[in-house]
Amino acid sequence: xxxPAARRDEEDGEEPRRRWVRxxxxxxxxxxxxxxxxxxxIEGGLGPVPVRPSPAPxxxxxxxxxxxxxxxxxxxxxxxxxxxxxxxxxxTLDAEIAAVEAQVPPLRxxxxxxxxxxxxxxxxxLRTLLISELDAPxxxxxxxxxxxxxxxxxxxxxxxxxxxxxxxxxxxxVLGLYDxxxxxxxxxxxxxxxxxxxxxTIAHEYTHALQDQHFDFARLGxxxxxxxxxxxxxxxxxxxxxxxxxxQWLPAHVTLADLxxxxxxVVQAMQPVVPPGTPPLVGxxxxxxxxxxxxxxxxxxxxxxxxAVDAAYARLPSSTAEILHPERYAAGWAPTAVMAPDLSRxxxxxx
Length: 351
Description:
This protein is mainly α. The chain is built from 13 helices and five strands.
């Protein structure tokens, strides 16, 4: 029989270790948020990667998520997963994803209204997917236009290849995606071990699914190819919300078994988030919804909990100034409309 005093001493020694792990996890959360930031492709500024649930390029528009469920939704690793369907590895992966999906709603205060299909792919499949998306006519044209604009404004070197920059950034950093069109998720398994990064990614992306189900991304109008300042502000609310959830989920669910992976993430944090040669404006726009959005969501949460974050979807920020200065949003500040005059007659033909 174990001595009660010895057991208490053992438990007392274990608690500091847990606190240390959780403290380190909070630091690593920033690393994960930065990496997750690359889930947006440079598409005339910023635009979500339109992931399809089917790899067929000629497929019609994806269908919406199916039946309503009363509690936490299930998930499955569909065809295309590194783990073969029905294998022990696939079953373990399914269980890990389902566990995270059950953990998110109590933290976020939003219950799932529909199942969210999840497809797990490897790094090679991600690269193939990204190339097909970047080379789609609309995105390719938007990338060329953005590149030309940045060069003409002196914000990028004349030799910059924005497509190459986008592909390098996305293939190295993307951890997961949520597709509003199909209301499904894609997770990237890079090393055969889903691990802490995989679980954190599911928590972040599943939060997007809950946001979409409750607040309707289509209504929010965040998929414009050339986003306005308002669209960037709304995206910052969405990403800041999910990043805040991730910062709460991580310390609550990190374990001692995650220590080796955390050590690797700390080393990874020393590496640049965006590839060398990325135009500064592009990098700033890429990270803005996540970092400044997290500060904005945190200020809302500090003032009124998740209810205050939810209320922001009914009174959306209309300018990135409100994201950078949350006190303006709280005070009901609104940006001044600027009417640009028609200069076509003064400039002459050709403009």
